[in-house]
Write a structure and sequence with these properties.
The complex is a heterotrimer. By secondary structure, chain B is mainly alpha-helical. In chain B, 76% of the residues lie in helices and 0% in strands. Chain B has a domain at 29-194: Orthogonal Bundle (MetI-like fold). In chain C, α1 crosses α4. Classes of the chains: A alpha/beta, B mainly alpha, C mainly alpha.
């Protein structure tokens, strides 16, 4: 008999949340019946368009886990999933003004950005490096002095490039392109002598280029391995708690590790490219102890 | 999900390390003005030549001028800039192409040439309309006085034509300044490009674009006043009153 | 530098025209329509007696004409969601798609230019027309609707069409928002396949053919509908 209040309480807690009790993103999703994902066109293998113009990628698969959890949590089996293509330069404004609810791509999680948006548990770690054509023999950051170097607008990489340029007085002519494929094209057509970007993205670009053997990584890095996080709105504790719970569970499960292997150690669309990148020690750590810490050192 | 205003952003240092955000915008303004001035110089020079050729009493020469005008009028400026920036270096011999592509101010030079040629068509139309607006008696009188065609243009037709077309030419100059913003697509760091960079680094969208807007308005005002002063200076007393 | 790859153009025709050019032409048509309507309203407001409304309209037209289109495109891209929120009283900025944002921008921008054309047209109508209309007992708005505006549009049609051709070319600037219009579609293919020369040359030729044909058409029209004075 005395269990009845407990049973009633358990039943109440098990009921899906009503829209009136919800705040922030969860309320928006419940009211509109749609969750909007911010996706990328060419961030291989995180979020990109395959040759059927479908959005696929490692981060997209993680986001779909969150979508499934939202469906259960809000009792919306017919939840519509909308996608909005974003660029490095507009992903944060579009998150802040409510256009997208989750940004599933290759966004670096750092303290500066956490003033505008929030991130969930880290899904990748990558250092900022540069590539150049082998023929030009550019190996160190100092060797880039006086050259034209391209990076992408709105990325931490271009900020790091500018900083290195000013600090070391290299007189580099910095080109800002609107996305990675345009930047790679600059390098390919010899308009720029080097391209600064996260190393995994660079590796994917080289591997899918017309002549992969023409390019080489520089020896120097512009930064230590920094965390990527799926982005969500700030000051939205209920939604963040849900996303954190889902991602942490996913990373620690076999399905999560299989997802990593699917995108980084097996052939991926559209051309069956295999990036052959096993988990680094930092990544193993990030999966075993999921965290949204922006400090790269915390993953060692 | 509201917008956070921060008008003090202009005095904060930009992540590019070259000073404050305000400095960034001023650099952009300087680039805009320099690009527009150089492009306008090209446009005026070529445009006057083409405009004159358009009115010369030789069908073949007129045809060349018409072809030039139609060519540059019927393509969007952006497409013309892309042709100069992406296509032109590729159709040159490889070593020249690579040299062109690796020039440190490739974007500036491309913008100046591209916008200059585009505007030359407009200037040509203005000049030719100005010349055609002159009473035919002017040309006849010049011939009667024994002036050659070149002298007719130099001493009789062009001076009046320029005065007639001064107002619409001012609007073309303003148009040139506005058109420099399109060169942001090929990497020129002019005012609108810098405002967008400021927006991307600081997320202060409306502050950045308001500053750019105010600057363009100021340029517009200053040039309109300067043009009015110039028109008053060069006006011929008694001309134009029926 | 390998030879010109015509095959590349041939392969891309579907995407270029069905996705890209369709966007461009739809945007041009709708923005021209909206721009002429809004522009006419602005022109009429400026003709009206009200000093306040007239200066607001004049202020708007002068402001827009002083700004580069690229800047106006950026403005509306960021502003429209907040405007939507304010207008509809929503709790968050309204998400507007790329096409809607571009359409609003171009209508607002071109209206300033169309309004100057219509204003010039109204000014060119002899005062006698308006006086005669009044003498016949027509109200001011009826005079505008049945006497003045029909004449204005007939006289200014060539100029309005020429401005529409300019608008057609201006739509290429949606490139700065990475929206897929005709040029944007070509740029995507150019970057993906590394075929810059083929794609951009083709785009240039197509724009030229469309614009030139249209402007020749306007020239014929001008001769055809010239009102004998």
């Amino acid at each position: 008999m005395r269990f009845i209040p407990l049973i009633l309480a358990a039943l109440l807690l098990a009921l899906p949340a009503r829209a009136a009790d919800l705040t922030g993103t969860l309320q928006k999703i419940k009211e509109t019946g749609t969750i909007t994902l911010g996706v990328r066109d060419t961030s291989i293998p995180f979020s990109y368009l395959d040759d059927q113009q479908k959005n696929v990628g490692y981060a997209i698969d993680i986001c779909m886990q969150v979508v499934d959890a939202v469906k259960k949590e809000l009792d919306l089996p017919n939840l519509k999933v909308a996608t909005v293509a974003v660029l490095s330069s507009n992903r944060i404004p579009l998150m802040a003004n409510g256009t997208v609810d989750l940004e599933c791509g290759s966004t670096t999680n750092n303290a500066e950005r956490q003033k505008q948006v929030a991130f969930t548990n880290t899904h990748y770690l990558t250092a900022s490096k540069f590539i150049a054509k082998k023929a030009t023999n550019l190996t160190t950051i100092d060797s880039l002095a006086g050259k034209t170097v391209v990076s992408v607008s709105g990325t931490t990489n271009i900020v790091q490039l500018n900083k290195a340029n000013t600090d070391r007085k290299l007189g580099i002519n910095v080109l800002a392109s609107k996305d990675v494929s345009e930047a790679f094209l600059m390098l390919e057509t010899d308009r720029a002598q080097a391209f600064v970007m996260d190393d995994i993205i660079l590796a994917a670009l080289i591997a899918s280029a017309k002549d992969p053997s023409a390019y080489a990584f520089g020896a120097d890095a512009f930064s230590a391995a920094e965390p990527y996080g799926i982005m969500l709105r700030r000051d939205d504790a209920p939604f963040k708690a849900l996303v954190d719970k889902v991602t942490a569970a996913f990373y620690q499960s076999a399905a999560g590790k299989a997802n990593y292997a699917k995108w980084f150690q097996a052939p991926i669309p559209p051309k069956g490219l295999n990036l052959n990148t096993p988990m680094s020690p930092g990544m193993i750590n990030a999966y075993a102890h999921p965290s949204d810490n922006p400090d790269p050192a915390s993953y060692n | 999900m509201g917008y956070h205003w921060n008008w003090g952003i202009f005095w904060e240092p930009s992540p590019e390390g070259n000073g404050t955000y305000l400095d960034m915008l001023i650099q952009g303004l300087w680039t805009t003005l320099l690009t527009a001035a150089c492009a306008w110089a090209i446009a005026l020079t070529i445009g006057t030549v083409i405009g004159v050729l358009r009115t010369v009493p030789l069908r073949a020469v007129q045809w060349v001028a018409v072809a030039w005008i139609e060519l540059f009028r019927n393509m969007p400026v952006l497409v013309q800039l892309f042709l100069w920036y992406f296509v032109f270096p590729e159709v040159l011999p490889p070593s020249w192409g690579v040299w062109l592509k690796q020039l440190p101010n490739a974007a500036f030079l491309t913008a100046v040439v591209g916008i200059g040629f585009f505007m030359s068509a407009r200037v040509a139309v203005q000049i030719s309309s100005g010349i055609e607006a002159l009473p035919s008696g002017q040309r006849a009188a010049a011939t009667a006085l024994g002036l050659t065609t070149a002298q007719t243009y130099r001493y009789v037709l062009l001076p009046m034509a320029f005065r007639i077309v001064l107002p619409p030419m001012t609007s073309d100059l303003l148009s040139t300044i506005k058109t420099t913003s399109i060169a942001l697509t090929i990497g020129l760091g002019e005012l609108t490009a810098r405002a967008r960079a400021m927006q991307e680094f600081s997320y202060q969208v409306f502050e950045a674009y308001t500053a750019a807007t105010l600057v363009y308005l100021a340029i517009n005002l200053i040039l309109t006043l300067a043009a009015r002063w110039l028109e008053a200076r060069v006006r011929l007393p008694g001309y134009g009153k029926a | 530098m390998s030879s010109f790859d015509f095959e590349e153009i041939h392969r891309s025709l579907g995407y270029l025209f069905f996705d890209g050019m369709r966007f461009t032409l739809t945007l041009t048509f709708l923005a021209a329509l909206g721009g002429v309507v809004l522009g006419t309203i602005l022109a009429i407001i400026r003709q009206s007696g009200s000093r306040l409304l007239s200066s607001i309209a004049a202020g708007y037209v002068n402001l827009v004409r002083a700004l580069p289109l690229v800047l106006v495109i950026f403005w509306f891209y960021f502003l429209v969601p907040y405007l939507g929120q304010w207008l509809t009283g929503a709790t968050r900025p309204v998400h507007v798609g790329g096409f809607a944002s571009a359409l609003i921008t171009f209508i607002a921008f071109e209206a300033a230019y169309f309004s100057e054309i219509v204003r010039a047209g109204i000014a060119s109508i002899p005062r006698g027309q308006e006086a005669a209309a009044m003498a016949l007992g027509l109200r001011s708005s009826q005079a505008m609707r049945y006497v003045i505006l029909p004449q204005v549009f007939r006289i200014m049609l060539p100029v309005l069409l020429t401005q529409t051709i300019v608008l057609f070319q201006d739509t290429s600037l949606v490139y700065v928002l990475s929206i897929t219009d005709f040029l944007g579609a070509a740029a995507q293919i150019a970057e993906r396949d590394g075929r810059l020369v083929e794609m951009y040359s083709f785009v240039a030729v197509v724009y030229f053919v469309f614009s030139f044909t249209a402007s020749q058409g306007v020239r014929r029209l001008r001769a055809h509908i010239a009102v004998p004075h």
